[in-house]
Amino acid sequence: MARSFLTATDLSSEDLFAIFERARILKESIKERKTLDVLRNRVIGILFEKPSTRTRTSFESAILRLGGAAIYLAPNDLQIKRGEPIEDTGRMLGSYLDAVVARVYDHQTVQDFSRYSGIAVINGLSNLEHPTQAVCDLFTILETKGEVKGLTLTYIGDGNNVCHSLLLICALAGMNMNVACPVGYSPRPDILDEANEIAEKTGAKIEVLDDPKEAAEGADILYTDVWVSMGEEGEEETKLNAFEGYQINADLLSIASKDARVMHCLPAHRGQEITSDVIEGPQSIVWQQAENKMHGAAGILDYFLS
Asked: Which residues are annotated as a binding site for L-ornithine?
């Protein structure tokens, strides 16, 4: 069975830095419009239950730029929509494709697809994790700061799938991470336990706080995500009230390190989790971060498929 990337813990620290190096080399080649054949004769399915702008486009672009072929598999066009078991779909697509990038609602879906297809499955987002996002984000920090080990990333907001993967990837990289969440919106305890176990080996420090100012003090990176994720629209009013005071704005940024950088995995709701002046300001690396979703995807594809 091919090796899949379903969770950040599918990587070792050595794997992570190897992906960073591959992403760096491939980014240079892609920027120079060099012909690449890393994925020559490879056909990769893009199976997305959830709509996407960046994850879909970045992976499709990376596949094509590396010489592979991408097939978009919309759930409405598949028999899954009519109740075909994932094991049946997985077995068949496993015989047609070399790998699948899957963006799904339930994390169990990517686990089952990996089990039954026998091909590499890359988790492009599930309700539990968003590991490719976290890899691309730390690649951006490495590119910007020249290092990641020993730096501190402060995540302000919902302890969601993005937060989960950042906790694990930061721990693998030896990078400290503070998380500031309202009561009731902290990361899952089992994810925190995993991150702390890894951090003990790499020297990273993980802290969960409820005061965003305390979490932001001296931080090298301030990071946020939307307060109301896709599928949570019915909770919008409750969450907006709960997250009042958890906004990345000029005041919070002034508490961080003097040369701190601001990140957001997008889409951004200006005026909610982040202000326009900060996301558009000189300390924002949000657009470099967004571009690196493609280069990080290239590094991940190369690492798992070449």
From this structure: 161, 225, 229-230
